[in-house]
Amino acid sequence: MDDFYKKILDNNKQWVETSLASDPNYFQDLAKGQTPPLLWIGCSDSRVPANEIVGAKPGEVFVHRNIANMVVHSDMNMLSVLDYAVNVLKVKHVLVCGHYGCGGVKAAMGNDSIGIIDNWIRHIKDVYRLHNSYLDSIEDETERFNTFVEISVKEQVFNLAKTSIVQSAWKNGQELTLHGWAYGLNSGFVTDLEVNISSNKDLDEVYQLKF
């Protein structure tokens, strides 16, 4: 057994002991069920931990992660998570959180072939194509990269709003608000991208305002 693997097993034991020391019923209570108010759709990047960023405890955030926090209408994994979160857990908020310095977004800005991920990145390239005139007008490469990260998050929120799952929830009068954030790896702070949508009326108004 290598040192890293042994360390994570030991860490688990220590975490259990610490949790039980503060609350003897901690895990028994967790096992009874979950009622998280938030679904987090984030990037798979190991530096973007959903719970830690928002200071949430286990049971408070339902999480889906993929490369570059994409909302793709043919992604059954994402749709299954969304359906369960909205229709079973009855979350009140769905948050798409991207991050500055995202490798998937960066790769989509170039033409190098990486491997099978090229097929996934194609979706991100489509976002760039929709906004290429504006993005190409930004001369500073870092600023253009950061702007693309933000635009991609906004587009994912709009994609989310158009899913049959969210549309049905709104039609049935369910309280559900969509949000978009960009997380700063070098600061720890998030930027609210001000795409807070709780109805089709909001969707139309926000889209016209942002693009």
UniProtKB/TrEMBL annotation:
Coiled coil: none annotated. Transmembrane segments: none annotated. It comes from the Bacteria. Pfam families: Pro_CA. Its EC number is 4.2.1.1. Its cofactor is Zn(2+). SMART domains: Pro_CA (SM00947). Gene3D superfamilies: Carbonic anhydrase. Keywords: Lyase, Metal-binding, Zinc. InterPro entries: Carbonic_anhydrase, Carbonic_anhydrase_CS, Carbonic_anhydrase_sf. PROSITE patterns: PROK_CO2_ANHYDRASE_1. It catalyses: hydrogencarbonate + H(+) = CO2 + H2O. Belongs to the beta-class carbonic anhydrase family. This is carbonic anhydrase. The gene is can.
